[in-house]
Amino acid sequence: MNKYDVAIVGAGPGGIFSAYELKKLYPELKIVVFEQGHELKKRRCPSPDHCINCSQCAIMSGFGGAGAFSDGKYNITNDFGGNLYEYIGKEQAIELMKYVDDINMSHGGEGTKMFTTAGSRFKKLCMQNKLNLLDASVRHLGTDINYIVLENLYNELCEKGTEFIFDTPVTEVREGFEVVYEGGSVKADRVILSVGRSGSKWMEKVCRDLNIETKSNRVDLGVRVELPAVIFDHLTDELYESKIVYRTEKFEDNVRTFCMNPNGWVVNENTNGIVTVNGHSFEDPNMKTANTNFALLVSKHFSEPFKDSNGYGESIARLSNMLGGGVIVQRFGDLERGRRSTVSRIEESTVRPTLKATPGDLSLVLPKRILDGIIEMIHALDKIAPGTANDDTLLYGVEVKFYNMEVKLDENLCTNIPGLYVIGDGSGVTHSLSHASASGIFVARNCFT
Predict the structure, then answer these.
(1) pLDDT in tens, 410-430
(2) Of 70, 126, 77, 129, which Cα lies nearest the Cα of 100?
(3) Could you give the C-alpha distances from 276 to 268, 314, 316, 385, in angstroms and in order?
(4) Which parts of 181-283 fold into alpha helices (H)?
(5) What are phi and psi of 448, to 5 degrees?
(6) pTM for this entry
């Protein structure tokens, strides 16, 4: 049985930056990284327009994780993206996110723009319309530049002796530590789990098997909005990613914008066999569209006796898949009139969809409370970006952001089992590229001290 100093499960941002920092600090370490998906150069979706349910989704898994093809936005902030700062302090969290940015810049990201909402004139405009613009610095790499950065990081890690084992799901982690996969196992002195959101069910199993305490997390439900880029360009030209929160009048729920993609594309993604919607954009001018897309999400937390927030989100996504054979698209005007969109109505729309989706009725899928909040939010955004509430604005559904059960960790992001660390979105502690990457750096710096 092969023996390693460190075994990392998952080659998403947490795993990548953990391996990077470990090799920088301790070049002699013997490190292995297991990844259930493909290596970077093999990550190609065979059917971008219509999900064919591949056994391993090339968009959701593989080197770079689910974030590899999700626009490459690194938000440097403690206001959203996770609660890593609760474990390591706000100053250190920001310092680590800036360090991640430095690494990205030195590996192919140089020349990309850093945006900031701090001191923005839009802060006041939002407040005047019952909206809250969150503060953040945003590095936009774009899907294309992000790929180059990942490629350079992978090549450097391989040159420094990091061993990668792709297309190999880990089935079990035993105390000791023995990392078991189909056909074999390895021993390691330390194990770092970085399985991302798509590994939520696997992470729950590991925690049950090893008696690691967890608590229920939230699930985010909503739609992806697509409209002409000119409607939001006064915001996106200056801020690029504007995280805006609205508190609904009817139910006092928070609805927020998420993952804004100026001149971007709406795309499918497959999580555990469930087809949902997402978006991305490119730095390359030739890959830009005439539309901007972003998500509108409502977070739902559950208390006793119900704990399965992800199961709740999955059931809604499966209903959408059942009715639409995948993602459903609906004109905002049709939604407000209480009628389903049809092929002819979509074709007559002034907004040309960037994703081939099934015209339908989102009111048959999303709970009324959530849909009412989204409609309220669209009208609120219309006050700062007139045209948002136009009849031809397109809504794709459903968009679901699954969060792992939050794993009980100490100040070093270690479980109750010494030497077993959980980082990235798989921990339930981080929810973004920058926070996940920073958690990987943090554990690398602390797991041998």
Answers:
(1) 999 999 999 999 999 999 999
(2) 77
(3) 6, 10, 10, 26
(4) 200-209, 229-239
(5) -115, 15
(6) 0.84
